[in-house]
Design brief:
This protein has about 220 residues and is of the alpha/beta class. The strands form 2 sheets. The chain has a 10-stranded mixed sheet with strand order 4-3-2-1-5-6-7-13-9-11, sandwiched between helices. It has a 3-stranded antiparallel sheet with strand order 8-12-10, with no helix packed on it. Strand 1, helix 1 and strand 2 form a beta-alpha-beta unit. The two termini are about 25 Å apart.
Length: about 220
């Protein structure tokens, strides 16, 4: 069984038990530099002691000198500005932890809507860039309110009857046939974000059949 990694971003740090459980059970924890202070402040309540992350990554634009002094031995400096710190952390995990089968991202939303939208959309980029299904790596973005993940082809997943589900895609040529949802998505044209939101699972398992390989974001409660 593969190991799990958590990326901690500099958004709203989770308060509820499920995302904190994911952090507690992670084999590897990678923080963006700006999230270091939040992680250190909350680590005692999660682990029962202050725990350093395994890696802190970024361009040093948002970490205090005091926090840097604590993590300087595990700091990975990335100066390039083409990608945000979440992507730098994701890339680091993919390049250095080849025993990982789960990557969970926390703290990626909740403060600035533009950061939240951007970080969510990156899930689709990761799925496409790395062919995560073929590699057998599960990637989710978890908050106190939702869990998000991306798919690139026809997909069946267990979610539980009554679960709230929203579906997004930037591909307006894509058609998605759905099984197990209250509102069918078969005729939805994905030309705006709201088109397939606020649906409900009527069965424990939902199947989405894509008309062609593309990128799709799924958000559940």
């Amino acid at each position: 069984m593969g190991k799990s990694a958590v990326i901690v971003c500099n958004g709203q740090f989770p308060k509820k038990e499920y995302p904190r459980y994911i952090i507690r059970k992670a084999d590897y924890i990678v923080c963006s530099d700006g999230a270091t202070g939040k992680f250190l402040r909350h680590s005692k309540s999660i682990f029962g002691r202050e725990r350093l992350p395994d890696i802190v990554i970024g361009d040093m634009d948002s970490i205090s000198p005091a926090n840097y002094s604590k993590v300087k031995d595990i700091f990975v400096y990335e100066s390039e500005q083409e990608h945000n710190d979440q992507t730098k952390a994701f890339r680091y995990i993919m390049e250095h932890y080849n025993d990982v089968s789960e990557i969970h991202i926390v703290g990626a939303g909740g403060e600035r809507e533009d950061h939240t939208v951007g970080n969510l959309s990156l899930l689709m980029e990761y799925a496409r860039m790395y062919d995560l299904v073929k590699l057998g790596i599960e990637v989710t973005m978890v908050s106190d309110y939702t869990t998000a993940f991306a798919i690139t082809d026809t997909f069946e997943f267990h979610c539980g009857e009554g679960r709230k589900i929203s579906i997004f895609s930037p591909d307006n040529s894509l058609r998605i046939k759905s099984e197990g949802l209250k509102y069918k998505t078969d005729d939805v044209v994905f030309d705006n974000w709201w088109q397939a939101t606020l649906n409900t699972a009527e069965q424990d398992t939902v199947k989405l059949t894509l008309s062609h390989k593309s990128i799709v974001l799924i958000i559940t409660d």
